[in-house]
Amino acid sequence: MNPLLPFRRGLQALRHRHRGCWIPFVGALLLIVLVVSAFVRSISTPSLSSIGNYRRLDAESGAATEAASTARSSDAIAVHKASLLAASEEASLSFGRCGPAGRVEVAVAVDADAVDVIGPLMQSAQVNSVKPHCLRFQIIVPESSAAQLAEAIWQVLVFHRLVDESPWVPQKTIHASSTASLSESDAVMPIIARFQLNGGSAVRIIPFDSALVAGSMKVVGAGAASASVCRGLEGCDPSRARRLAKATNFARFFLARLLPDLNKVMWVDCDVLFQKDPRTLWQVALGQGHGDDSETFVAAFVEHVPLGRFYFNQDNVQSLWTQRYQRNLDMSADSFNDGAIVIDLSKWRKFRVTEDVQWWMQKHKEADPALWKFGTQPIMLLVVGARWQQLPSEWYLGDLGFKRIEDFDRESLQQASEAVVAHFDGEHKPWLPESVSEVNLQRHGLRIGYNSQVLRPYTPLSSPVAWLAAPGARCLFSSSAQSAPCEVGPLTPGVSVPGLRWVSSEDLFLGVASISASSSHAADVSGLFVPQVRKNLPLVDSFVEGFFSAAPLEKRAKNVLESSVFSRSAERVIELFFFKPRRLAELYMQAASPDHSIRGAQLQYRIGVDAQDVWRDACELRRATVCEPRRGPSFAAGTSEACWLLSGCGMVEAQNWRIVGWSVEAQEQALGNVWFTVARPARAAPLII
User: Fold this and answer.
1) Which of 334, 351, 341, 342 lies closest to 386, judged by CA?
2) What stretch(es) of the chain map to CATH 2.60.120.260?
3) What is the DSSP string of 444-499?
4) DSSP character for 108?
5) DSSP string of 159-198, one letter each residue
6) What are the angstrom distances between the C-alpha of 633 and each of 12, 293, 449, 459, 661?
């Protein structure tokens, strides 16, 4: 007997007795199902409302308190979400939520120098994705520093509000099973972390053993500037060769081993942004006409320049190619850019392409001086040959590291707006400063950052417009202990930076009639952030770690690349107030120019925050120092000791700090900016739930 038969008969009887009354009954059942499914979805996918946390200063203690109804995620919730990810990922696929093309798999490699850049990349991909839950990032990091980089990646994602503001919780390494049986993918795939972004996209962090390429990696520029190989946009800049000489840059050749559970992946360089849905590209790449019977295993964007432009001796390379593949290579054929490609990993394994890569790298290493200039693209062109699909060229906006959008004509601007991928290949990057001084350009090779307006929509509003990647106090967002110190800057009176809010002395003392912002009493004794002032501090976003102010100012800087000018008539002071005690280990003051040498500054602190608490000197060592161009990219820096350094600043932790007692050896009391190093606490601060 069918166990469901009594239930069905009972339902039929109910319908006959109460015709029409069963409709509310069914509606109630549907409502219950919807509520339960919404609840399950809310658990497995973090809510975007969690980014709306705010801080307010307690009027009595000055401590930071939460003022919004949403609280920070706890460690337990973070671990819970990570544990739910495996089930939710596969469930989304099994129910067909991602369509016939499946989940979009995006792979990118970063090291310590490029970790900040992946924030805008991931933000742009998710924001422009129609189905962000069908998007997964494979972040490949050097194995030797994988644990540190995993935490650094988390901090970057916190800064971009792609994950909740909670401490990084190290995860136990897991291993994914392989979908292939070839020897190339026999290695076990370690995953050191996986989690979900606010918005639904998934992330996996995967270590890359640099030993795979360390023995054969060779990146060079051309020996002679007049060589034909130096013609074209790339040129032969030795600094570019040095930048490309990183093991992570070669990770694209080992994706078949690093991602054995995948048969298709989209590789992008870290200097890429998505202007439209990545799925647009994913669905077309390696689709109809490029099945199992086809030799095509890469989809890429064409570059209408000869393939042979990278090779020092084309005849030699042609001979080697014929030796390897038993056919000829057309050096005049169009090439493609390997910074945004889709790879059929199953065919890559079938054709044993990684073995080809290693063969070419060994031949390149043995050649004198080399077979080609620069890094990965000459290798990719050789191992792929003609086995690639040309993607619609209107979907790609490249060479943004060489060309300024301001110079585009109307037709080019229209084409740029239609691009799916924006690639900042070249020397100029949008996260570098908009302007640099001629002195820095000539002496230190600092380049002008191009096309920052393309990057701006994918950076937090707190990022300084003139220097989108200015560190600010981003490193203070993490409440976990780290061995590396946190470098905060540039602090330029007049301009807020990520994590620290600028507030003018006039605004500080607005409505506080008993104190004058320009009085020596405010600077010498009480300070700027006195109790009466703290009561009037604004409600701020929880991503702000504190305030800073300065007095007396004659001219505030308009952006972080300008200098500010102090008055000569009174004691000059720059003061910081943190929401929780911080230990400052070092202070650096950047001169506005070599003609504005800074002398005599001291860093002070006070344990309490009341007016009667005494200011104490913090640093034992004070001296003039050679200015560092990276600290103030628009300021002239050189060998003159125009800047000021304080070190040996003790072990004290305090909320209130200030810089006093300095002068500028010029009529104009101009100051470039201030940087300070925050020492990490011995233990992680407790999480406030």
Assistant:
1) 334
2) 474-679
3) H-PPPPP-HHHHGGGS-TTS-TT-TT--BTGGGS--S--SS-EEEEEEBTTB-BTT
4) E
5) HTTSS-S--------EEEPPS--SGGG-S-EEESEEEE-T
6) 80, 54, 11, 20, 25
* pLDDT value at 526 more than 60: yes
DSSP state of 571: -
Report the largest interatomic distance among the alpha carbons of the chain, rounded to a whole angstrom: 101
Per the CB < 8 A criterion, the answer to whether 532 and 512 are in contact is: yes
pTM of the model: 0.77
* pLDDT tens by residue, 610-652: 667 889 999 999 999 998 877 876 565 566 799 999 999 988 9
CATH superfamily, domain 474-679, is Galactose-binding domain-like (2.60.120.260)
Length of the chain as a residue count: 689
Note the pLDDT of residue 605. Answer: 95
For 142-195, write each residue's pLDDT tens digit. Answer: 999 999 899 889 989 988 989 987 778 877 777 655 444 334 444 567 899 999
- Separation of alpha carbons 115 and 127, rounded Å: 20
Strands 602-606 and 616-617: antiparallel
Beta bridge partners of 472: 489
Strands (E), 361-412: 388-390, 396-397
CA distance 266 to 268: 7
Q: Is the pLDDT of residue 26 over 60?
A: no
